C-alpha cells in the first residue's frame, strides 16, 4: 500500500487545524506521528481514514482518492485511545464485528477470530465481556478487531494513552512485535516523544497543523 497526502488543509471555524501537509508512506513501516496536544494529529488521521474531508488537498491510497473508495473497501483499520469496544458483546463478537458486517460466513469468522486470539495473546478470553478485562487486554481486543478484516493500513490514535505506565511499556514491545509479524503499514499517533522514538521506524512531527519534520528517529534527534 502506498499512501500519498497532497497539500491537505483543514480549518474548524477560523482555526486552522491542519495546514498544507504533504507526505507519502511506503509499505510495511511503522510511522510515528508526534506532536503536542491540539497540533492536528487526530484531525490528520481522521482525514487519512476518510472520516473527515479536507478543505483543500487530497489523500491517495494506491493512486486512488480515499473519498472515491467506499469505506469498507479502503483497507483501513482504526484503534482509538479509549478502547471503543462494544460493551454488550464478548471478546469473540467484538473481534468478529468487522467480518459480520461484511457478511462473512460463520466458519470463516470462527477461523479468523481464532487466528486473532492467538496473534494477540487472547486465547481463553473469547467469552469475557469488556468490563471483565484489564485495560491492556481491552486494547489488545481493539487491535484484534481492527485487524480482523485484514486492512492494509492501521491507524492508531494514542492507543496506549489510557493505560498505566508499566503496562504501556509492555504494550509497546508487544505492538512492535505484532506489526513486524504481520508486516502492516501503521501510523501511530502520540504526544510522547519517548514512545515515538521507541516504537517508530520513521517519524512525522506535526506542530500547529504543520508538518515540521520527517525522518528516522535517529536523524531527527541528531539534527542540530
Ligand atoms: P491533536 O490530535 O494533535 O491533539 P486535533 O487534531 O485533535 O489535535 O486538534 C487540532 C485542533 O483542531 C485543536 O485546536 C482542536 O480543538 C481543533 N478541532 C479538532 N476537531 C475539531 C472539531 N470537530 N471542531 C472544532 N475544532 C476541532
Ligand atoms: P485528541 O485527544 O485525539 O486530541 P480530542 O479529545 O481533542 O482528541 O477530540 C476528540 C474528538 O472531539 C475528535 O473527534 C475531535 O475532532 C473533536 N474535537 C476536538 N476539539 C474539538 C473542538 N474544539 N470542538 C469540537 N470538536 C472537537
What summary fits the major beta sheet?
6 strands, mixed
The chain-level mean pLDDT equals 92
Shape: globular
Neighbour order of strands in the largest sheet: 6-7-8-3-9-10
Low-confidence stretches: none
SS class: alpha/beta
Hetero compounds: adenosine-5'-diphosphate
Radius of gyration: 17 Å
Tally of alpha and pi helices: 7
Give the CA-CA distance, first to last residue. Answer: 33 Å
What are the secondary-structure elements, in order, as H or E?
EEEHEEEHHHEHEHEEH
Count of extended strands: 10
Strand content: 25-35%
Q: Estimate the helix proportion, in percent.
A: 25-40%
Keywords: ATP-binding, Nucleotide-binding, Sulfate transport, Translocase, Transport
Protein name: ABC transporter ATP-binding protein
GO molecular function: ATP binding
Domain ABC transporter: 3-224
Amino acid at each position: 500500500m502506498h499512501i500519498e497526502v497532497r497539500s491537505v488543509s483543514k480549518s474548524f471555524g477560523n482555526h486552522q487545524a491542519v495546514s498544507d501537509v504533504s507526505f507519502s508512506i511506503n509499505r510495511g513501516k511503522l510511522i510515528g506521528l508526534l506532536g503536542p496536544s491540539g497540533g492536528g494529529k487526530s484531525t490528520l488521521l481522521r482525514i487519512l481514514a476518510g472520516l473527515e474531508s479536507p478543505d483543500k488537498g487530497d489523500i491517495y491510497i494506491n493512486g486512488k482518492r480515499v473519498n472515491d473508495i467506499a469505506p469498507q473497501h479502503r483497507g483501513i483499520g482504526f484503534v482509538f485511545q479509549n478502547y471503543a469496544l462494544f460493551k454488550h458483546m464478548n471478546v469473540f463478537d467484538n473481534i468478529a464485528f468487522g467480518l459480520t458486517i461484511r457478511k462473512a460466513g460463520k466458519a470463516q469468522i470462527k477461523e479468523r477470530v481464532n487466528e486473532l486470539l492467538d496473534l494477540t495473546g487472547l486465547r481463553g478470553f473469547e467469552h469475557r465481556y469488556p468490563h471483565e478485562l484489564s485495560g491492556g487486554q481491552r486494547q489488545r481486543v481493539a487491535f484484534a478487531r481492527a485487524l480482523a478484516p485484514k486492512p492494509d493500513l492501521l491507524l492508531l490514535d494514542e492507543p496506549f494513552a489510557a493505560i498505566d505506565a508499566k503496562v504501556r511499556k509492555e504494550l509497546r514491545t508487544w505492538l512492535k512485535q505484532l506489526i513486524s509479524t504481520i508486516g502492516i503499514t501503521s501510523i501511530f499517533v502520540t504526544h510522547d516523544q519517548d514512545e515515538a522514538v521507541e516504537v517508530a521506524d520513521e517519524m512525522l512531527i506535526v506542530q500547529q497543523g504543520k508538518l515540521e519534520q520527517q525522518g528516522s528517529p535517529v536523524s531527527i534527534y541528531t539534527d542540530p
